[in-house]
Structure formats: structure tokens, C-alpha cells
Design goal:
Bound molecules: guanosine-5'-triphosphate, magnesium ion
Strand content: 15-25%
CATH topology of the largest domain: Rossmann fold
CATH superfamily of the largest domain: P-loop containing nucleotide triphosphate hydrolases
Largest sheet: 6 strands, mixed
Order of helices and strands: EEHEEEEEEEHEEHEHEHEHHEEHHHEE
Helix content: 10-25%
Distance between the termini: 69 Å
Strand order of the largest sheet: 10-11-9-12-13-14
């Protein structure tokens, strides 16, 4: 079965702790500080690939972790960084926060790494804290925490052109001829179960990504056959290539064409605004001429105009260059419209917060009920994480950082005076200018 959605927990690696160490040198009672920094934790990175076509390999994984950074060592040796974990997924996979439904990222560019969870920073060793006034600091920084997230991966194949049609019309054969993609086509019919993507090179230098989609049948839009779950992939292709079976013995091609149009329309009317081409395949068949002529007649009857059709024989590799050119031209004209039809996307925009942005803010508020001033913000959280109340060095560094950040100034502006209580993190301090 085709798996196009899966839930997964991802966890980045935490950073290694900085070390506290001192050199032991001959004839010296106490050498300088020499605790090395901790290594950085591994990140979780996603890369969209055109040669992946299902999320199946991830289906049975509950949790994917990146490596932790190693702790810093003596003699100023930095701990080893944790390896990043790279997760390859099909092009067009969306990563959604499963708790909040926010769209974290839409992997629409092939081979581009996207860091979804950052590994924790390595903590600094005590050697880094030495300065002229404190030559032998006895503290180091713990490693940054790991991050974790429950995500839902949803695959909506992303291709420039999508081949649509009833089963057995020759879609997989076409993609195998025009691209490097070689789906299974048995001499006895083998139905495509997963969309296949192939990169098509046009001889004039252009290229496009083409999707061979599983066949649709009447009723697909209401869940019949395999088709329904693939209709959503059609939403994401720029142009639609209707493939009709020139070898058909019973029924007629115009009905087939209308059936597909109707299923697409019921699923989402916007799909029909996309550029479309009609291809009749199997021109080598003895039934081809009758099928083609009947199609033209019926089409003219209904639409009062001559259809533009492209004739090919995928199996004999005939008419394929013309087909490739026509698809590339249609994609170009569609690109000019720059009207990408998107689906029901009700996701909120997700914003990655950079370290700089995190580091900018703190706020001072007055809690009138408890008569304390409250200092909070991401930079304060970070500061509190490494603050050691029982360590004189750490307290000193803490006070200096607060001053440098302008927290003292901001408290005064807000009316804070000597003797008032200031709450930072979970600790209450007495303000002393
Ligand atoms: N005579 C003839 N047979 C063809 C041609 N192209 C494909 N076929 C045959 O048609 C049958 C179906 O081809 P596929 O490419 O698997 O068809 P499909 O549209 O991908 O089918 P689904 O995956 O079920 O939707 C196979 O036996 C092919 O060999 C052609 O140009 N001429
Ligand atoms: Mg197929």
C-alpha cells in the first residue's frame, strides 16, 4: 500500500558539557585552567530527493535521534561533535508540527538540506572563562539542550508535469522513455502503486520533473480505487498531461477523457485551471485510427472546436521528442502566469527563530500582586541555564552580563529602586544599584 503520511518523533543531540580542569605542571602548585569545550550536538536535517518516492522507509521508525556532543576534556581538548542525522524524503514532502498543525517546512527544492532541529551548543570549558581578574575559574558551561518535536510528514508529490489517465494507458511506459526513471512495467500489466518522479532533459537545455501517477478510475474522487490519495498530488503539478489509450477496443477515448476531467473537477475545481495537454498513446495499435477519429468527433461535438492532440507510441519511442517539447513549452507558459494553485493549506506560517533573534529580547514587567519586578525572555532563560548560585565566579559573571544587556538600566527606568525584589527565572534578588 502506498504510504504518504507518517508520524515521527525527531530529537537533536545535546551539546557536551564544558570541562573544569587545571594543568598539572612540574614545580607548579597549580597550573592554569585547561578544561576543554563540549562538542556540538548533531542536528536533524531533511533533504528532498527525486529518487525517493514513498515515506514507507520512515513508517516503522518511531523516533529518529541525532548524536549527542561529547563532554570537553582535560588539556583543553574539545569534545567530539555529534553527527547530524540526515533524513532523505521524496520531493514535495511537507513537515508539519503534529501538535500544533503548523507547517514547518515544505521540501520543494531537490537536494537542499533543511535543518529542522538544531543540535545543542557545546558548553565552554573553564579555560574560556579565564581573564586577568579571574585566572582560575572553577566553573564551566553545561552543553546546550537537545530539541525534540513530533512531526507529521505528508507527501504531496511535486512535479512540473503530471501524467494522468485511466490504468493501463501507458503512463509508466512514457516516463520510462522520457526520463531516467524506470518504473516497473511488466509485459503483463503492472499497476503503478506509488507516484514515480523522473527528470526530463529537453534537447534545448531545458529540463522538468515529470510524475507518473497511478491510474484513476471513475469514482476516484469519492474514494474508489487507488486514485483518491493520488489526486492530491495532481494539485501540486504545474501542468496536466492526459494520456489516452489508442489501443482501446471497448468504450471510447472521449468518455475516458471526460471521466478523468470529472474526477479532477469533483476533487478540486482549481486543478482544471492548470495548463493541459491531450496525448493519445499506442499509435502502433491497429485500433488507433478509429480511436483517434472518434475522439476528435466527440470532442468537436461537445466543445465546438478541434482538439489539440499529441500522438505517440511510447513503446516504439515515436513522437516522444515532440511530446517533451510541448510539455516544456506549456510549463514555461504556466510559469509566466505565476499562479500556483494550492490546496486547502490552512497551516500557520512557521518561522524559524535564529540565534540572533532569540538573543535580542528580554522584558521587565512589574508583578503588582507580589510586588516584584520580573525579568524574562529567551536570553534570560539561556543565562539562567548556566547560572550557578553557589559559585562566586558564576554569580559575578551573571551580574556583569545583566549589566551589559541593559537589564539594570531597564529596571531603573521601570521604577526599580535599591531594596526592591527582582525575579529572574525562579530566583528572587534584591536590587542593589
Ligand atoms: N502497443 C502499445 N502498448 C503500449 C504502449 N505503451 C504502453 N503499452 C503497454 O500498455 C500496458 C500498460 O502500460 P503502463 O505503462 O504500465 O500503463 P500505466 O498507465 O502506467 O498503468 P497504471 O499504472 O495501472 O495506471 C503495458 O503492457 C505496456 O507495455 C504503446 O505505445 N503501444
Ligand atoms: Mg503505471
Amino acid at each position: 500500500m502506498f504510504i504518504d503520511e507518517t508520524i515521527l518523533k525527531i530529537v537533536s543531540g545535546h551539546g557536551g558539557d564544558g570541562a573544569v580542569a587545571f594543568r598539572h605542571e612540574k614545580y607548579m602548585e597549580k597550573g592554569g585552567p585547561s578544561g576543554g569545550n563540549g562538542g556540538k550536538g548533531g542536528s536533524i536535517i531533511f533533504i528532498a530527493r527525486t529518487n525517493e518516492n514513498t515515506l514507507l522507509p520512515l513508517r516503522y521508525k518511531r523516533i529518529i535521534k541525532a548524536e549527542n556532543g561529547e563532554n570537553g576534556k582535560i588539556k583543553n581538548m574539545t569534545g567530539k561533535s555529534g553527527e547530524d542525522t540526515i533524513i532523505n524524503v521524496p520531493l514535495g514532502t511537507q513537515i508539519i508540527n503534529n501538535k500544533t498543525n503548523e507547517l514547518i517546512c515544505d521540501l520543494t527544492i531537490a537536494d537542499e538540506p533543511v535543518e529542522v532541529l538544531k543540535g545543542g551548543k557545546g558548553g565552554r570549558g573553564n579555560a574560556e572563562f579565564a581573564n586577568s581578574r579571574n585566572k582560575a575559574p572553577k566553573f564551566s558551561e553545561p552543553g546546550g539542550p537537545s530539541e525534540e518535536l513530533e512531526i507529521r510528514l505528508v507527501l504531496k508529490v511535486l512535479a512540473d508535469a503530471g501524467l494522468v489517465g485511466l490504468p493501463s494507458v501507458g503512463k509508466s511506459t512514457i516516463i520510462s522513455v522520457i526520463s531516467e526513471c524506470k518504473p516497473k512495467i511488466a509485459s503483463y500489466h503492472f499497476t503503478t502503486l506509488n507516484p514515480n518522479l523522473g527528470m526530463v532533459q529537453v534537447s534545448d537545455g531545458r529540463s522538468f520533473v515529470c510524475a507518473d501517477l497511478p491510474g484513476l478510475i471513475e469514482g476516484a474522487s469519492s474514494g474508489l480505487g487507488l486514485g483518491f490519495q493520488f489526486l492530491k498530488h495532481v494539485e501540486r503539478t504545474k501542468v496536466i498531461i492526459h494520456v489516452l489509450d489508442g489501443d482501446k477496443i471497448e468504450g471510447n477515448l472521449f468518455n475516458d477523457y471526460e471521466t478523468i476531467l470529472n474526477e479532477l473537477k469533483i476533487y478540486d475545481e482549481n486543478i482544471l485551471k492548470k495548463g493541459q495537454l491531450i496525448v493519445i498513446n499506442k499509435s502502433d495499435s491497429p485500433h488507433f485510427n478509429d480511436n483517434k477519429n472518434n475522439f476528435i468527433k466527440d470532442y468537436k461535438n461537445k466543445y465546438k472546436e478541434e482538439p489539440e492532440i499529441i500522438i505517440i507510441s511510447a513503446i516504439l519511442n515515436e513522437g516522444m521528442d515532440n511530446l517533451i517539447y510541448k510539455i516544456a513549452d506549456l510549463i514555461d507558459s504556466e510559469n509566466e502566469k505565476i499562479e500556483i494553485v494550492t490546496s486547502e493549506e490552512s497551516f500557520k506560517e512557521y518561522k524559524f527563530v535564529s540565534d540572533e533573534e532569540k538573543g535580542k529580547g528580554f522584558t521587565v514587567t512589574k508583578d503588582y500582586e507580589n510586588l516584584v519586578y520580573v525579568v524574562s525572555g529567551p536570553i534570560i532563560d539561556e543565562l539562567m541555564r548556566t547560572f550557578r548560585q553557589d559559585n562566586q565566579d558564576s554569580v559575578l559573571k551573571f551580574a556583569k552580563t545583566l549589566k551589559k544587556l541593559g537589564v539594570e538600566e531597564e529596571l531603573k527606568i521601570n521604577g526599580c529602586q535599591n531594596g526592591d525584589i527582582v525575579r529572574i527565572g525562579k530566583i528572587d534578588f534584591e536590587f542593589n544599584d
